[in-house]
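Milestone 3.1: sequence recovery, worked example.
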């Protein structure tokens, strides 16, 4: 096989309807004209497959075996292994020897590697009742009219993959392929009425609602569910307009073939083919702008790209994130575009890494110019960008010293090391006894030492043992903080606003009290400004809201405008002075490319008034969000353009609202279960802020949420019901 999809078809020269073994068949209605039409339909199906990029091999017809034209019933094929079928009806049993001979020839050519017989006493009619789900990695197994349920265990044993049994409820849909068709990207086209309630429940359990495409009675009667899927192309019998719309809306390119003579026998496109090249592990393939010689419909291609990217990510990537199902490909300013060409307003800004907006032209120019000159020297040598970066950053933030690193977590780890070393060498804490106080619900990164003092079970569960030396106190509690300080305390580490916890703002005066406590007790105050810093809250650093200065300030994310991992520890001379050559470093920290990008990012923030804009537009947006009269909203809080909408539990969860916002062209992200973070780039305009508020107002309808909440409280039986989405069509984005 040459890497193309490989299908076997059968010459329809001997096809007719001479007996009745299912409700579709009527020998009395068969005419010679229909035999001619069948030959034309088979040829058209082959041409459609080849146009979709497939290779098709046709085996000869055999007189007296009219249903040989349906090779999907001949065998189950996966990874080059063939499990031969055994037919229940005597009229078809003669096909078994013919197909055995075909597969032996294919094996001799190296196109299959092993042929397996079904156990005695069992019936199974091949791929028509064992459909491989490429995206989920298991077989869907039909049983009832034609195939024995016991045969499904043989399928499982032969191929080493799970089989989900689906009992068929009617003789009209006697093979699974007549009413069930997995499509690219995890979508499933199926006819619910063909299944028993138990089978339908099994489908719904394994296929999310948004991936289910339900065929109606007319669509199923046209045997359109019996389809062949190659990439974005779905090849089927002539379909009702309703199904064309359903598939088109999902991004598939529909190719219709006149298969009426075969439908009179109870079969269609899938039955008429058997795919030999199916693999249990999908091949990595690059998306193509064309399939075969036919230009693809752009929307169909792009939707398929979304699905294929998600499928590849799921297959090869660690499952440590749960993103919204949007695949982004381009960004500019406050907007991003997905691979389907849809534009969204970005209200997360990569957790504040793109405060300056996506692909800021001046930062991009600095990056390109520096990348063409020199990217990395390591700190074994000096470079001409580092000193200027130090000078400009210190002047902007009123700092004495800078320690450049890469990620935010590295900046936190560096600060912990510096604080401990200062404690031992300057404060005189006994060796190994240094204590650092942190706050509950903190989020400072994902390293082992950092998650060790997290109070989030999901962050720390399963990662111990953890480093000692950390005390956790309630965030915002002055008395608890003061009580935790001992002679061995070397530092207090706080977020000025807890972003990941849900944009939690401490009580007024809390940070100032912490500063006074640390000064009095000779303790270092470390403020993690990786998310709050560089303009996000309407001040350059969030510490300015209370008129204080930390001993160590940690910045990152927006320090590069989203172009490159850059972070820094800002310090006074006394604290940073404890580091000496060889005691701490980073291969990439302070590299010339990072420094050039960071310098341009800082200039963009200050010269273009982004910090001041964040304060003004943030107040406007916060006020508009707070004015929404939705029953699901518990609180709106935040500073600058670091905002959050917290929902009541009866609102149905923040994830639901984020998905609803996505449908309207706005990307936001839930944190925990009931809070939505809103953090657009700092270049947001008044009109864009107004539009954000309008979208939240639209997806949080007060009457619907309240009525749903009342019903939920009144009826425990409906307690698992989802609240109404009430989603209008996506509205136009401003600007």
């Amino acid at each position: 096989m040459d890497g193309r999809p490989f299908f076997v078809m059968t010459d329809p020269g001997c096809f007719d309807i001479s007996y009745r073994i299912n409700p579709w068949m009527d020998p009395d209605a068969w005419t010679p004209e229909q035999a001619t039409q069948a030959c034309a339909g088979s040829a058209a199906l082959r041409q459609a497959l080849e146009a979709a990029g497939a290779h098709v091999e046709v085996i000869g017809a055999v007189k007296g075996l009219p249903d040989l034209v349906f090779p999907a019933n001949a065998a189950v094929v996966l990874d080059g292994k063939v499990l031969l079928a055994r037919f229940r009806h005597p009229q078809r049993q003669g096909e078994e020897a013919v197909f055995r001979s075909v597969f032996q020839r294919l094996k001799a050519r190296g196109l299959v590697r092993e042929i397996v017989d079904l156990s005695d006493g069992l019936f199974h009619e091949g791929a028509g009742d064992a459909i491989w789900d490429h995206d989920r990695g298991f077989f869907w197994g039909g049983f009832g009219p034609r195939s024995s349920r016991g045969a499904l265990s043989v399928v499982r044993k032969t191929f080493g993959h799970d089989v989900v049994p689906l009992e068929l409820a009617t003789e009209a849909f006697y093979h699974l392929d007549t009413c069930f068709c997995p499509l690219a990207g995890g979508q499933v086209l199926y006819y619910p009425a063909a299944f028993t309630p138990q089978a339908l429940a099994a489908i719904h359990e394994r296929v999310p609602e948004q991936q289910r495409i339900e065929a109606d009675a007319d669509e199923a009667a046209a045997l359109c569910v019996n389809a062949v899927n190659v990439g974005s192309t779905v090849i089927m019998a002539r379909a009702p307009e309703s199904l064309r719309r359903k598939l088109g809306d999902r991004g598939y390119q529909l190719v219709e073939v006149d298969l009426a003579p075969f439908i009179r026998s109870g079969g269609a496109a899938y039955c008429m083919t058997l795919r030999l090249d199916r693999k249990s592990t999908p091949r990595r393939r690059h998306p193509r702008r064309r399939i075969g010689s036919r230009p693809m419909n752009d929307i169909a291609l792009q939707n398929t790209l979304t699905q294929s990217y998600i499928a590849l990510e799921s297959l090869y990537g660690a499952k440590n994130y749960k993103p919204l199902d949007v695949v982004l490909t381009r960004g500019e300013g406050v907007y991003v575009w997905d691979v389907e060409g849809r534009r969204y307003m970005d209200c997360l800004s990569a957790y504040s890494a793109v405060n300056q907006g996506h692909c800021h032209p001046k930062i991009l120019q600095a990056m390109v110019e520096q990348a063409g000159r020199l990217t990395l020297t390591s700190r074994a040598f000096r470079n001409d960008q580092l000193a200027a970066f130090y000078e400009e950053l210190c002047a902007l933030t009123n700092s004495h010293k800078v320690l450049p690193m890469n990620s935010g977590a590295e900046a936190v780890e560096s600060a912990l090391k510096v604080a401990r070393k200062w404690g031992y060498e300057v404060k005189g804490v006994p060796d190994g006894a240094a204590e650092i106080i942190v706050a509950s619900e903190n989020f400072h990164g994902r390293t082992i030492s950092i998650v060790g003092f997290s109070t989030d079970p999901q962050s720390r569960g399963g990662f111990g043992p953890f480093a000692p030396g950390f005390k956790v106190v309630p965030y915002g509690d002055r008395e608890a903080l003061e009580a935790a300080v001992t002679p061995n305390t070397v530092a207090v580490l706080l977020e000025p606003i807890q972003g990941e916890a849900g944009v939690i703002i401490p009580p007024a005066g809390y940070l100032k009290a912490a500063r006074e406590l640390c000064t009095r007790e000779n303790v270092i105050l470390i403020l993690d400004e990786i998310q709050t810093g560089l303009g996000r809250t309407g001040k350059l650093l969030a510490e300015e809201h209370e008129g204080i200065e930390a001993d160590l300030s940690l910045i990152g994310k927006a320090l590069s405008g989203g172009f490159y991992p850059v972070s820094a520890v800002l310090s006074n001379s006394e604290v940073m002075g404890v580091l000496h050559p060889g005691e701490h470093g980073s291969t990439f920290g302070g590299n010339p490319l990072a420094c050039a990008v960071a310098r341009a990012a800082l200039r963009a923030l200050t010269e273009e008034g982004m910090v001041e804009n964040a304060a003004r537009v943030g107040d406007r947006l916060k006020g508009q969000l707070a004015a929404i009269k939705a029953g699901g909203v518990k609180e709106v809080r935040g500073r600058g353009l670091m905002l959050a909408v917290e929902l009541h539990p009866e609102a149905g969860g923040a994830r639901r609202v984020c998905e609803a916002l996505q449908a309207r062209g706005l990307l936001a992200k839930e944190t925990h279960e009931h809070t939505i973070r809103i953090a657009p780039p700092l270049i947001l305009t008044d009109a864009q802020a107004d539009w954000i508020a309008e979208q939240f107002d639209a997806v949080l309808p007060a009457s619907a949420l309240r009525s749903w909440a009342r019903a939920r409280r009144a009826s425990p039986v409906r307690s698992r019901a989802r609240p109404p989405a009430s989603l209008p069509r996506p509205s136009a984005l401003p600007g």
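The first strand starts at residue 6 and ends at 10. Residues 612 and 624 are 19 Å apart (CA to CA).
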